[in-house]
Amino acid sequence: MALLLIMTALMAQVESTPCTSTFFSALVQLIPCRSAVAPFSPIPPTDSCCNALKALGQPCLCVLVNGPPIAGVDRSMASQLPDKCTTDFEPCEII
């Protein structure tokens, strides 16, 4: 029952966002950010990472942050990218 509620909430989030990328293509777009979102990484995002983030957009970042686990990616660090890149994104609702 709890799993059904979680899946329903996740689907509602995905349906309410205008992200036009698939999960995989959004992930590929953020490859320049991999060193900045690795667990315990002290490396700040590069200009190419920030440009990729801005091109991807907030809705797709939220899809990634709330999607299935991604090996080598700290979700908390990924959700901090907009602040570190000084983009004007609303914070993602973490499910």
From TrEMBL:
Keyword NAD in record: no
Signal peptide range in chain numbering: 1-16
Native organism: Lupinus luteus
This protein's UniProt keywords: Signal
Domain Bifunctional inhibitor/plant lipid transfer protein/seed storage helical per the UniProt entry, residue ranges: 28-91
GO molecular function: fatty acid binding
Superkingdom of source: Eukaryota
InterPro entries named among the record's database cross-references: Bifun_inhib/LTP/seed_sf (IPR036312), Bifunc_inhib/LTP/seed_store (IPR016140), DIR1-like (IPR039265)
GO biological process: systemic acquired resistance
Pfam families: Tryp_alpha_amyl
Name this polypeptide is given: Bifunctional inhibitor/plant lipid transfer protein/seed storage helical domain-containing protein
